[in-house]
Amino acid sequence: MDTDSIIPLPKTVQVCRKALLDWYDGHARDLPWRVLPVARSEGQRPDPYGVWLSEIMLQQTSVTAVKDYYAAFLDRWPGVEHLAAAPLEDVLTCWAGLGYYARARNLHACAQRVVDQHGGVFPQTEAELRTLPGIGDYTAAAIAAIVHDLPTNVVDGNVERVMARLHQVERPLPDAKPELKSLAAHYVLEYRAADWPQALMDLGATICRPKNPKCDLCPLERHCLATKTGKPDAYPRRRPKVARPVRYGAAFVLCRDDTVLLRRRPAKGLLGGMSEVPNSSWQAQKEVTETVMMSAPVEANWHNVGSVRHVFTHFALELDIYKAEASEGYQTNEGWWASCHKLDEEALPSLMRKVLAQAGMLLK
DNA sequence: CACTCGTGGCG
DNA sequence: TCGCCAAGAGT
Q: Which structural domain range is residue A167 located in?
């Protein structure tokens, strides 16, 4: 670690641990995958499968967005062996709308690894968990701590934010990551090893929020340097964002009675393995109509039925939507016809649901 | 190691 | 309407 990195005073560490754990006893969020501190103190432990599933879903995703998906997954695949036996297509269908679809592919691969190589039992140590697909530094530490009470250093965006404010770290993210992780390591403790990281994350999510932090309710306020000497919501500092470019393209909704033509995207990459309607490549410049029509799946009486705009992580997309009725003899060896009444059974990302809705084909 | 990879909610 | 960003991982 850098010689200029901050080291918290031992006294501060002790007082903050106590204050935050006490706060957690009264303010822990009651989450479906969580065992609350009272039950935990009575020896109750969470289901490793449920904790793992929730942690994967929660990567870069809000609790609100995850809850329904978590319940649906547990209902359909109650254990890791059920999930491992499922076709990947089914997993992607249930994941559709949650985003970052590599997580779903890795989830499935991880379940199969656990069943095939670990007898259906999740490894307990951080190092072993770390080798599984979809489990990185954060998730390995989180599972080891939350499930097995191991004193790991669990560092997510919440913990980074709390540390950056508590110690008023001026170095911007992502450069500050090692420093913030080092700071957090000083607070790790064996006593209540499972509750500590969850307390930190709950504080970050409900009190020490990115915007409008509720410092007056914070159990650590007396020790928080950012609150004393500056505006806490200015931390963690970040590099200025790069502008998000816009890409343009066209999507083709080919209908036959109450069905639409769908196809599968390549297994990896953007929206990998998900379903889509045929569409053009996405370019930085909008192309002329004649060129756009070259990428239609078939010559037909295409009508423009509007456009949709969708924002991805590193670019925005504007798709013009074209719709046509397939002629009687149209044959295709690519894709399949999907009933517009059963589109919930397809692995449609939100972008494609927008497209189908705009074309009037997203019915229930 | 910089880049890729979704989506919805919220001020 | 728009920028911000959430329990990160893989390459």
A: 10-234
